[in-house]
Amino acid sequence: MKKIIPAILLTFLFSCVNNEDFSIPDISTEDPIIPESNITTFSAIKSLYEQAVNNGNSTAKIYSDTDLYIEGYVISTDKYGNFFEELIIQNKTDDSNPDNDPRLGFSISINASNLSDTYQIGQKIYVKMNDLTLGESNGIITIGKGNAAEVEQIQASEYQDIILRTNEIADILPKIAGFETLTSADLNTLIQLENMQLNRYEMGRTFSAESFDEFDGFRLLESCETGVSVFLQTSTFADFNALVIPQGQGHITGVFSRDYGDDFNVLIVNSSEDINFENTNRCDPAEWECGLAETLGANNLLYQDFEDQSNNRFVEIEGWTNYIETGTEAWEGYSSTSSNASLGRSCRFQCASSGDVSNIGWLITPPINLDEHDGETLRFKTSNSLADSSFMEVLYSQDWDGNEATITTANWGVFAHAYIVQDTDSFATWFNSGTIDLSCQTGTLYVAFKFTGGGIDSFDGIYELDEISVDYVE
Q1: pTM above 0.70, yes or no
Q2: pLDDT averaged over the chain?
Q3: Cα 1 to the chain's mean position, in Å?
């Protein structure tokens, strides 16, 4: 294949191979010579796409009277089978000078395999943008061919004339961040999450070789610092799909992306070696040990359906605690007849457009005395609207003293058997928690519904809660 010769540099000679054998990588050692005046930025290209979207278009085609290039670095590889017919590139080798030169990334769609034979991780490349198209594919900005309707793949016969590699192989330093701080600007870039572990209910599972895995496996990872969770996405065609995911805690490095249906954020590793969970001390919370009850008592000890609350006003109920740990939002009354309708009036936590980096809110029941009755149980219903990696937990404490000042220092465990609406569930449905057995414990119990999210676009979900009921047999 002929090495690319920019039109303005025809006097330079480059080595070539047979034009008809497109599977043979270009092995020439000469770097392409691209004048600075012909190089634009990732930001400028992204702005062209955003302008097109604002004008009602779904894609943006790049037109230029002169050759126009972007300069970037490869951060993905198909060598281990977890990326297929695409290159992920970002404009920087690290996260320095974010104000002057924001760190951005693109996916390039290519109808070819074995791209790692030509482009290594860290390889500096130039992409000739003339007549290429930008659009959104599965929630991420993608470069390819095509027209105003959609982005199509760059064909095998032409991609090496568009994506020009250099001899420079750079060390890519991932952005080290908490998952809750990432935004859509971090999509298609390499990130590293610290103090992470596989969710305890995923223990012993492979990356993507379980009987229920179809096309991709999704495994829930969680932060030991914040509790924030993210799905690890692995192709069922990955070479390491049958390996068991490490079960300790540590750091993981991968490409920040979206799932195929553009429903939630995911992390995609290049290989299993990108996971370093060598710390054997996991951070699992205490779990309520009673499990689910077989019998629901006919007597009610506590019931709340929020019907007497005001829409969009913070919940105020005698004996209940509506506590803001961080941010400016709290649990509020909510009523809707839309496709995600409330159950009459419900309770919700909404951090979208809050403007807060972090929103954490607690709604805590009055004390429940487990010594007065037999056969106590807990039930509730949950729903969500585009959870966007925010999450809700249902916790318990037997040592909280009822004061807001001690909420975060009390010991809180988790009702592990209670079902809470998941990020992957339908947003239009209300889900029953199941009947949680409370009867195996004694003393005073507080139940807390805790929301964790934030006002940034990758973390700004909405959770709804209703029909909280504590019952007993006698």
Answers
A1: yes
A2: 89
A3: 39
